[in-house]
Fold this protein.
Amino acid sequence: MAAFLQIDSLDIAFLTGRSMAILLRMMILPEGDPMPVETFRFHIADEVIADTLDRVRRARWPRRLGDGGWGFGVSHDFMRRFVDYWTSDYDWRRTEAELNHWPQFRADIDDCKIHFYHVRGEGAASRPLLLTHGWPGSVLEFLPMIDRLTHPSRHGGSAQDAFTVVVPSAPGFAASIFPDGKPMGPVRTAEMWRTLMVDILGYDRFGVQGGDFGAIVNVQMAARFPEHIAAMHLNLFPVTMAPDDRLSAEEAAYVEQCAAFSAREFGYMNLHGIKPNTVAFALADNPLGTAAWILEKFHAWSDHGGDILEAFTLEQLCANVSLYAFTDTIDSSIRFYEGFHRELGGAYCPADRIAVPTAMAIFPRELLPARPPRSWADRHYDIRRWTPMPRGGHFAAMEEPELLTTDIQAFFRDYL
């Protein structure tokens, strides 16, 4: 109880009326009763940081293959540059300060401890919006968007577009912990997000947004809890393959292109989903391997002309890798894929059409299977907004926060 009662006046200002009622009830519970919510701040011990970076410095490197570029996976030469910056110039405390800038909490939900940000928007009419990340991303993706979404008047916009945002860490990521032997997938996550938003925070009707696994979780929420989901904005579009006799020429070409893309890019997904423990043993005690495993995806899935630093800074890349390495969650994060296969059999969306009003922001370097033709997407969703973006890739919130924020604001004006 003491940890929660240390909540300060700023944090209290971010609670809804229903959440305040929960707080007051919790304050009078008998000593020893479990507390469902606590305030939270990231703090990684100095010795954990030092030990992790020392293991990076002492790591045995694989032989340089080819020209050292990205042709065989992660670039050997870029990894040298990254590690030099990570171990010499990067300061985790800067990232930690960014993570701790916004009010955050941890709630006990379904035997898990779920970390989340809860940031109140300006004005009396700010609308609740849930943002969900995927792998190998994190809540760090959304930090550049929080002030734009909650205080648009600071960025040349109108206070009428303000949202109150909730940004949870997915189960097994960063500070969201699930019990050993119980990996989570999109279905259980959708159920926990409903508990978080409705039962804990008191939002009976809200919008959802996300990409990667965040999009799949949002679709599960829209399918299972449509009474709570006012509208859904996605920057990755989960679809399933249609029967061959229903395909147009454009759709048939899309299927063929997706098959080639998946053969080249999705081997990691099979390993994560079917043999996650093998990958976990390879990466859990190997921070250099963790960095390579993550950075290869950031290079392959983002919008640049061959140089990953056109899309991200070394600081951003170190921050995301460090969040996995310093919190010791690379193994639990990849087990989300096992949950995905177990719960949904690898199906990205339900067979039945989703009736919730839906918007799609199409970034040109998003993964090809997540950029279906409009005719295909219409089979699965009630699409009300379809926005081809001029630039950006899979990590849209990090790559193009202004473009994504503007599209979110424009869509939800009519539905939230």
About this structure: Residues 174 and 405 are 24 Å apart (CA to CA). The mean pLDDT is 90. The first strand starts at residue 37 and ends at 39.
